[in-house]
Specification:
Blueprint lengths: L4 H15 L2 H16 L6 H18 L20 H16 L3 H30 L1 H9 L12 H7 L10 H7 L3 H25 L1
Helix pairs in contact: 2-5, 3-4, 3-8, 3-9, 4-5, 6-7
Length: 205
C-alpha cells in the first residue's frame, strides 16, 4: 500500500485542482489564444456549432430545477450533462469559426481533463440525493456522448414519474436559470472574434 501513496497523492491533488478555479484559468487561456489567432472573420460552420451549443444550454435550462426533482426531459433524455456539452460545442465552434483546428483539439482535451472529475463528483452527490432513479438514469442515458435518439417516455418515467417535469418550462429557462445568458455568450464570442479579426486587418493594412 505504501507504494501507491505518491500516485494517490497526485490523484487527490489533481482532483482538487480541477475542482478549484481551473475553469477560470481555462477561460483566460482560451481568450488569449483566440486573441492571437482570430485573423479571419468567423466562418459559418463554426458559428452554427457555437449557436447549437448555446441552444442546448438554453434548452437544458427549461428542465433543470436544481432541487429534489431530477431533470429527465428535453436534452436530458439524450445526454446527462447537456450544459457541459453545450459549453464544449460553443468553445470548439469559436475555434472552428476562425479555422483554428489545433485550438479545437486543445479545447476538447482540456475540457475533458477539467470536467472529468467535476462530473464524477457531481454524480456521486446526485446518487445520494436521488438514489435508485438516478442509477437507472445513468444506465439509460450516457454521460457526455449523446444517444442517437432520446430515451423513451417509458424509460424516463422510471427516472421521474412527474410528466409535467418532463415538459419545457419557459419561465424556468428564462428567469430562474437565465438561459438567455447562453445566447448573450454566443453573440459576445462571435462578435468579439469578428472585432479581433477586424483589428488584425486594420493594423496589418
Amino acid at each position: 500500500m505504501q507504494e501507491n501513496k505518491p500516485a494517490n497523492s497526485f490523484y487527490q491533488w489533481y482532483r482538487n485542482f480541477v475542482k478549484g478555479k481551473t475553469r477560470n484559468v481555462f477561460d483566460w487561456v482560451f481568450a488569449i489564444w483566440v486573441l492571437y489567432s482570430a485573423q479571419i472573420y468567423p466562418q459559418l460552420p463554426g458559428i452554427a456549432i457555437c449557436f447549437l451549443g448555446a441552444t442546448i444550454r438554453f434548452w437544458a435550462g427549461g428542465y433543470l430545477r436544481k432541487d429534489n426533482r431530477l431533470a429527465a426531459g428535453g436534452p436530458y433524455a439524450w445526454i446527462r450533462n447537456p450544459l457541459y456539452f453545450g459549453r464544449w460545442l460553443m468553445a470548439i465552434g469559436v475555434a472552428i469559426s476562425i479555422e483554428n483546428y489545433p485550438l479545437a483539439i486543445a479545447v476538447t482535451i482540456i475540457l475533458a481533463a477539467v470536467y472529468h472529475y467535476t462530473i464524477l463528483d457531481e454524480e456521486t452527490k446526485l446518487i445520494v440525493i436521488f438514489g435508485e432513479p438516478y442509477r437507472i438514469y445513468c444506465a439509460t442515458v450516457p454521460r457526455f456522448i449523446p444517444r442517437l435518439w432520446p430515451a423513451s417516455v417509458a424509460q424516463m418515467t422510471k427516472v421521474n414519474s412527474e410528466a409535467a417535469l418532463r415538459t419545457f418550462d419557459w419561465s424556468l429557462a428564462w428567469t430562474k436559470n437565465k438561459g438567455y445568458e447562453a445566447y448573450l455568450s454566443f453573440f459576445g464570442l462571435i462578435g468579439g472574434v469578428a472585432l479581433i479579426a477586424y483589428a488584425w486587418g486594420f493594423f496589418k493594412a
